[in-house]
Amino acid sequence: MMKYITEATAKQTIRIRPTDSFKGTYGHITLVGGSQNFGGAIIMATMAAVYSGAGLVTTLTDPVNRTSLHAQLPEAMVADYHDEAMLKSSVSGADVIVIGCGLGTDDDALNILKTVLDTVQPDQKIIIDGSAITLIATHHLSLPKAHLIFTPHQMEWKRLSGISLPDQADVDKNKAVRDQLNATVVLKSSHTQVYTANDVFENTTGTPAQATGGMGDTLAGMIGGFVAQFSNVDLAVASAVYAHSAIADELAQHQYVVLPHQIIHHIPEFMKANEA
Ligand SMILES: NC(=O)C1=CN([C@@H]2O[C@H](COP(=O)(O)OP(=O)(O)OC[C@H]3O[C@@H](n4cnc5c(N)ncnc54)[C@H](OP(=O)(O)O)[C@@H]3O)[C@@H](O)[C@H]2O)[C@@H](O)CC1
Ligand SMILES: Nc1ncnc2c1ncn2[C@@H]1O[C@H](COP(=O)(O)OP(=O)(O)O)[C@@H](O)[C@H]1O
Ligand SMILES: [Mg+2]
């Protein structure tokens, strides 16, 4: 039976911070992505992770993106994703990895993705978005033992699952592929659904004002931030999906279009209003 993601989901998840805590309490995220052409995607994902409250954030990207990322977000550490030793150690040191936002699909991107998938350990959580999903589908890459969270839009889900867009309305078909992948699947659309081991949740927030490039990159970073901080992974994913679109709904009351960076700036306020 379909369950719904509501304000109650967010309030059940977002916790008042204990006084006796420090940055290590809130998780270390490593994000990997941002080719020379798609730097904006990894900047939005990184900002979303930091504004969601992740304790420590490291971004591995093409060096051409370093200055623009730091100009917006001095809080993030940045390294070159071509440096394989650095890539491996940054992945090993993370609680949560986010890969694929603006990664692209060329040979460099494929090699970087393979290195990350080879390095991930079973106790880690990895959010697989955008180009990383396309690469896994195209090259039939095998998946690591880890907590896998895929965040496909409908075309990416078609590439990964083989399910046509009309057939994606069939929850049982999506579920069957989720079971094969043994992953959490966030199937993004105007009514985003979250497939977990035991449940299917449908989001109740969202607006066509969100239909703009970078919106999914922002969600991937938010999911990373929520999963890094809140121990129930399914609730953390569902709450990030809810918050991303609830903030957009609020802004869309007065705006024709809502930009990803505008959502990002409102995350801390949303979390404060819903902490419990
Ligand atoms: N500023 C930046 O740096 C940005 C960087 N980005 C990065 O770019 C990379 C590629 O990601 P991508 O999603 O743009 O391309 P891709 O996977 O080929 O999908 C496009 C194809 O799928 C279709 N399609 C798409 N959505 C659909 C849907 N919901 N339902 C149905 N169909 C849908 C679409 O159809 P069409 O629009 O042509 O009708 C088209 O054929 C990725 O790494 C991402 O992070 C972007 O985030 C933008 C901002
Ligand atoms: N009409 C809509 N209503 C609600 N949400 C939408 C709508 N259109 C797009 N979105 C949301 O915007 C995001 C788009 O993700 P994606 O296609 O990966 O964007 P990008 O890769 O450009 O960042 C998803 O979270 C999706 O749910
Ligand atoms: Mg995307």
List the helices and strands and how they pair.
Blueprint: E1 2-5, H1 7-13, E2 28-32, H2 39-51, E3 56-61, H3 66-72, E4 77-80, H4 84-92, E5 96-99, H5 107-119, E6 125-129, H6 130-139, E7 147-151, H7 154-161, H8 171-181, E8 184-187, E9 193-195, E10 200-203, H9 215-229, H10 233-252, H11 260-274
Parallel strand pairs: 1-10, 2-3, 2-5, 3-4, 5-6, 6-7, 7-8
Antiparallel strand pairs: 8-9, 9-10
Helix pairs in contact: 1-10, 2-9, 2-11, 4-5, 6-7, 9-10, 10-11
Note down, in words, how this protein is organized.
The longest helix has 20 residues. This protein is 46% helix and 16% strand. It has one domain: Ribokinase (UDP-N-acetylmuramoyl-L-alanine:D-glutamate ligase), CATH 3.40.1190.20. Helix 2 packs parallel to helix 11 and helix 10 packs across helix 11. The chain is an alpha/beta fold. The structure holds ligand NPW, adenosine-5'-diphosphate (ADP) and magnesium ion (MG). Magnesium ion binds next to helix 9. This is ADP-dependent (S)-NAD(P)H-hydrate dehydratase.
The class by helix and strand makeup works out as alpha/beta
Radius of gyration: 17 Å
Question: For the report, how would you describe the main beta sheet?
Answer: 10 strands, mixed
Strand-and-helix sequence, N→C? Answer: EHEHEHEHEHEHEHHEEEHHH
Q: Give the CATH superfamily.
A: Ribokinase
CATH C-level: Alpha Beta
The share of residues in helices is 40-55%
Can you tell me the number of structural domains? 1
Measured between the Cα atoms of the first and last residue, the distance is 28 Å
Based on CA inertia axes, which overall geometry fits? globular
- The total count of helices amounts to 11
CATH architecture: 3-Layer(aba) Sandwich
DSSP strand count: 10
Q: In percent terms, what proportion of residues is strand?
A: 15-25%
What is the CATH topology? UDP-N-acetylmuramoyl-L-alanine:D-glutamate ligase
Strand order of the largest sheet: 1-10-9-8-7-6-5-2-3-4
The bound ligands are:
ligand NPW, adenosine-5'-diphosphate, magnesium ion
Output mean pLDDT. 98
Low-confidence stretches: none
Subunit structure: Homotetramer.
Pfam family, one: Carb_kinase
Cofactor: Mg(2+)
Binding site for AMP: 188-192, 216
